[in-house]
Structures are given as C-alpha cells and as structure tokens.
C-alpha cells in the first residue's frame, strides 16, 4: 500500500495532456520490440504514447486490420464507434474514423459528439442486429480504468461482447504485419471528409430509454431511493443526469468533472491515478461521503468506460466486488420470474466460492469459466446464462423477459441494480450479503503477487493437473486440481487448487514478472494466509523448482 493511497493527487502526479498527445503523433513504434507491438489482452490493446505502446501508427494498423477482418467475416452493417475521456482517446478516435471510412465502412458515431460507455456500444450492436439488417459490430476506444497516460482499443464483433482470441489474434497479427511494412496497405482520408462520411447514432437516448427492459426503475422511483452517482470523470458523465431526468429518480451526480489528468482523483493503492471503482483507495472520496449521516441510500462509481461498477452503502462502505456479485445473483434469481428455470449463473474461476454456495442453494446451474468476459457472451446472447460476473467488478444480466441486454460488462446496469435491491427488499446490498454470509459462511478473499521469470510464467500457463504433486493444502485434502475451466473446458492459463473450505488460483501476469495468487478460505483470515503461503510451495513444486 502506497503511503499516499486514498489521498488527493498532487501536481507532480499529473500527466501533461499536450505532451501525451504530441507523443501519440511523434513517436513511432519499433515492431521488433515486444512492448511496442500490437497485443490484445482480455480487454483489447493498451499502452501509453510515452512508451511507444499506443501511438498513431498502432491505431492506423489496428483500424485497417479490423476493416479487413470484418469484411472477411461478411460483416457489412454499421460499425458503432465510441470513445471515453482518456487524453489519448480523442486523437485515436479521429485516426480510427479516418481509416474506417476510407475502407468503405459504414461508421456510426455519437449523435451528441459525446463520450460513449462500453455497454452503450454493446447495446447498440445487439439492438441493430435484432432488427434483421446486415450484421454490425463496434469499437470502444478506452483503456478502461488504466491511468491517464494510457490509451486503449477494444473490438466488439456482432455478438456485441469482447472479441474472442481467434478474432483478436488475427487482427493483432495483421496489424503487426502492417507496422512491419511501414503501414503499407493502410487506407486513410482526412478527418473532415471522414466525419462527413460517418453516420450518427443516439447512444445515450437508446440505452437510457431501454433501461426499464432490464431494471425495475418504477420501484426505485416509488420507494424514493436516494442515489449518489460518481462517473469518476469517465464516459458515463452525461448518462447519469439523463437517467435521473428520463426516469424521474432521486439521483444526484456527485461530480461531473472531465479532466484528462484526473486531477480530482485520490491515488490508488500503488500511488497511481487509476479510475478503479472497486478500489477503496480510488473511491475514498465517495466512501467518505457515505459515512455517518450519509445523504444517499446507495452510492455508485464507474470506471472510465463504465463497464465496471463500485457500490457504496451507508452500512458497509465500499462493497467487495465478490460480495456484490453474490448479493446481485441472489436477488435477481428471486425477482426475475421471466427467466426460465434452466437459466444458469456464470462466474470466472477466480471469483468467490460464495457464489457457488448461493447458486447451489437456489438449485441453479453454475458455469465457471476462465478470466475474461468474452466467455459469458454465448450464454448471455442466447439467454441460457442469466448473469455473468467477474471478481474485478464487471458483470451484466438479462432483460426482465429473459432476452439479452448487453454482452459486455455494464457498470451502469449493476449500479442501478443496487438501487433496485434497496427499493424492493428494503435492505442495502451489503445487508443482503450479510444475510447470505450468515447462511453460507463468511469467506476471506485476497489476491497477492509472487515473483516469476518469463520462463516460469510460460510453464505455469501450460501446467496440467498431473504436475501438482501436493495432496494437501493448509491442513485440508486437495479435492480438485484444475487447469481447464469446468464450465467450458477452456484452458485457464494457470492452475486452480480446491479443498473443502478453501482454494487458490495462480495465473501469470501478462505485463510484469509475477504471477497472481487468488485465494479464499471459509475458515478465516489466518487460514487464508496459510493458503496463500502454501500456494507458492504448490506452484513451485508443480514447476519443478
């Protein structure tokens, strides 16, 4: 924990937005350097222009690669293009538009020339595709909750959710080929011509008008639930006020400041500015507001592209994301009669086992998948999965009638659900979680990092269950060793070891020389620390160290 975590950012913590944009245009990536190539992670390509990791050449190459990929896939409908409030998002949006229109792509940009949350892009794609026209897709220019110096580029195919590895692998390979050949083959026109050639779409109006399809906002309004919403300077900044007005809610926008430096943000746990709405340090202002004599029944925060949620209650402070997922699942499956009896619950394998116990008590099917929201897309799309959620505070769920809402994470939806829970049950989501914990046990959960070389990380990602020699973990017999997710058989890129009352998962970091240890115990904090300590030994033994 950084000594200034949770404290207001100082002048020395802030980026120079003009220097950031200048570097975007002036620095040229060297494709022989791994850190300067196009690489799609679970949430697209990310990097900083200062490091030659996210520059104009990257965006030119990725945009051309996407134009070619969608043509090869027969995607001829409109491409919905949105951006968030990061300093690099505006220039990248302009660059992408110049390439896409030059390639004959029918691009739709925001009718208000505003910022566009990720869920509004997903909603627009799905709404268009339900109309029966030519298939559409989308691009969100955002590095999500990353620091202000970063930029990001995400592609959503016609499924509306994050692109799968087959698509991102092909797009990245073509983009890197273009970088290696000096961008030979990239088509581009001037921005003014590109802007004239693009159509528009009312992302805000279409998304907000449809919210009653997924939420019981009548109950929220009639109960007079007082909501405080903090966009954290991100793409949802104009959405919250419009939601309050359109649906006549007692909703206050706590801060509508947009500043590419994020000078108003408290520092995150590592001392960086990061718009992480699941971090108590980054959310310290809102947590302070919700102390004694709180003016709201529930308060919410979103990250820069509003695909993540943070829930603050007067009785519990900032909710642990795992706790809120469990409470949301318990509430939704008891209050959505339009969902069929066979509709399942989706979770990532590093999410809390409290979810497993809640789902089992409901008699529902649990689908456990690797890390990555893309694994929930098929089930949300066809209505067989009612709720998909990640421990990193990203989730979405079906409409009340069981039809698809979004197939990407929706921080606005989950934030408003907290108000619905309060309105319908008379209890806060944290109170609902406490009731679940009294019934199912109260787990301790944490994530820590352990050092690992590049070679060790590669070996960790390729382990098989037979590589684990240990038979016991923290005093309990090991009952299951997983290197593939039970919900879909996909490789998890690491290892999960399970006992009756505890588990740990180890996954290599994609950016640092560490591996991540996620661990949980229903036997308390002391046992959790024992699990974490022994997890290192189990991993070392599996790697033959």
TrEMBL record:
Belongs to the phosphohexose mutase family. GO terms for cellular component: cytosol. GO terms for molecular function: magnesium ion binding; phosphoglucomutase activity. It comes from the Bacteria. It is an enzyme of class 5 (isomerase). Keywords: Isomerase, Magnesium, Metal-binding, Phosphoprotein. PANTHER family: PHOSPHOGLUCOMUTASE, PHOSPHOHEXOMUTASE FAMILY MEMBER. Residues 38-177, 206-316, 320-438 form the Alpha-D-phosphohexomutase alpha/beta/alpha domain. This is Phosphoglucomutase. It holds the Pfam family PGM_PMM_IV. Its EC number is 5.4.2.2. Its cofactor is Mg(2+). Residues 491-537 form the Alpha-D-phosphohexomutase C-terminal domain. Residues 142-168 are annotated as: Disordered. It comes from Caulobacter vibrioides (Caulobacter crescentus).
